């Protein structure tokens, strides 16, 4: 088991005992701004072997508890003498991250009747390797060899990169060690009388330009705990008669707090850990969309970050075009020296329409028209990108074709090399028009037609409405597969349908682009056995020749993918499908610690036995955590309407839940508390508190 703790833009990725073994293939380390500031951390007690009792890691903190094995000494089998009884020395290793500093404490208690004399030996190292090199994504030229300097009370590792920036890691001890060596080893004497307790504390400080403020250990702990408590106190509360769903929702709230990072425009959710702890266009936008009734300010911060980095020029190296929304931004040495095109990289076909959709949905949940005005010029640039650069061959569809030599070949959410595949197993060739992206563009144009009308720009509103209607007409003609009664995955460069039966078409249900008959057909197909595993909807039909339940995008189940399908099922009031999918996801969560849904899991049939995890899934992952929020929204049938200042509820509880209370849902100008109770086939709704300023209508 691995452990990850994170706070803001620092995270620590270790083995299950909190150590960072040298040369581990897992890529362990202390990371800051896409650079590994610590690649080795280990400890031991001189002459006292220790065994692990338990360990835990959550949010920005971890804890590891140990005791000792029996210690004997002597020159022969007969003359051995007992030096230390087993289980007589207690050690608790605690660490936390707060405001740019890792705080470490080794807490010792001597429970023996004799004194203990030993030394704590620590070994640390910093290689300052770029994240892309660690992941095997790229090789690259580097700067000078890292240097280690012995300080009065610790060590300082430093590295000057090819970008001219100096990266440093300091290890500073609260009390003077007895030995500090340039090879990264530190020794601290430890003498404990019977019953005596002692703490050995130190700080690990990674920094680039400005060294962060270092606090007292107790103050850092207090301020961190206060921050988490303040977050949870303003969050919605959920209580139902299903403990797994309760735990999943609570874990989602904690994970969202852990994954928040402020890059200058307020806190936004980064994609996930360990490898995607940065703003992602698609991931951050979808996670913000999932969490609108949790905290709409996260969505606003995400939008402002995307506006700040919106494309301004034609740069094929970065797949940048005017008006385009970024895919991913990185900060490491390879990015800074332009060895990789991620400063930021724009290779995402769906981030731009999702950006437009999120602005509208923020308005839908808050009624904040001033925020819409703030975003209006960026929205116009985004629509200009969709109409011009997003349709390079004038087919009438938003498409992608990678231009960068080190870019991403497939630029939808299924971005692996083999994810867009014809029914004969051959890969589709770009430009590729993905099915879900056309739905996003339709949704964005319809939504902004209404918004621009409210902003007094009637001519632009009418044009967007007209464009959306034309798009819908040709889309239903060109993507529909009559024999399958389903939508094609994509159109390839030759305008041929990519006829794979995939989950992507499920996103259309929330977009409004489907007519009623086709929406019903798509929903029914999603829940047939080749797509619905019993745990969730697979990315690709089990009947497709490229299907592999262990693949990243060709047969696995992604919770966020299912959450977007849930949003569509809510819009169409498809209660039976909702119940099946909700129950499947809740049952899946029971197979993961703390009911934490991961980035993805394998697509094997539920009837085949236990759920099979995907071996290298990111966890926690923002849009996987946000799936729990969408599930609650689906059960409530929550449909806010800022224009008419009303909240429509069409509740539908799955078979496994009979009672649910949801409090502090953030909508309109305040909060909403709702209770659901099921008797037979009927779900009863009670509004317990409403400070939103909007009317509640129960459908």
TrEMBL record:
Mannosylglycerate hydrolase MGH1-like glycoside hydrolase domain: which residues?
A: 290-589
Q: What is this protein called?
A: Amylo-alpha-1,6-glucosidase
Q: Which residues form the Putative glycogen debranching enzyme N-terminal domain?
A: 5-201
Q: Give the matching SUPFAM superfamilies.
A: Six-hairpin glycosidases
One GO biological process term: carbohydrate metabolic process
Question: Which InterPro entries is this protein grouped with?
Answer: 6-hairpin_glycosidase_sf, 6hp_glycosidase-like_sf, GDE_N_bis, MGH1-like_GH
